[in-house]
Amino acid sequence: MRDKFLFFKNFKAVADKLPDDLRLKFYDAMTAYVFDGVESDDPVIAALVGAIKPSLDKVDNRGGNHNPTGQNQYSEVKTGQSGQSFQETRNKKQEVCKKKNDKKKKGSNAVQSDSYEGGTPL
Predict the structure, then answer these.
(1) Segment 84-95, tens digit of pLDDT
(2) Quick check: is 78 in a domain?
(3) Is residue 81 in some structural domain?
């Protein structure tokens, strides 16, 4: 089974309302369910653990790919609809913008040189 689980504040809130002997049984039953898959025979304790089972089971479903450092764990590159990576798409857009800017610069120089004949403005 598992070797850890998240303990939520509401688990403690439930346990705090129990007398000492039931509180111990509750904690024991909760850990037995999580770590060993064993459910309590005591109907009261089984009902209490049953109330938090969705939280206990949900933790199991969320495990696996969590990286506490926040770094990307996936080896494959994420791609857009065109099949290109997002970085490739960004690079192409930057290239297109640069080419447009270069054309504008060349076009504006040509217009300026045509407007001057013989060194005097028109």
Answers:
(1) 666 777 778 888
(2) no
(3) no
Compute the C-alpha angle 53/56/57, nearest 5°: 85
Same domain, 16 and 58: yes
Same domain, 57 and 14: yes
What SS3 class is residue 68? coil
Half-sphere exposure of 95 (CA within 13 A, CB side): 6
**Which structural domain, as residue segments, surrounds residue 29?**
9-62
In the chain, the number of structural domains is 2
Give me the DSSP letters along 26-55.
HHHHHHHHHHH-PPPSSHHHHHHHHHHHHH
pTM tops 0.70, yes or no: no
Residue keyed to tokens 């039931």: 22
Q: What tens digit of pLDDT does each residue of 18-69 get?
A: 999 999 999 999 999 999 999 999 999 999 999 999 888 875 455 555 555 6
- Cα–Cα distance for residue pair 70/95, rounded to 1 Å: 31
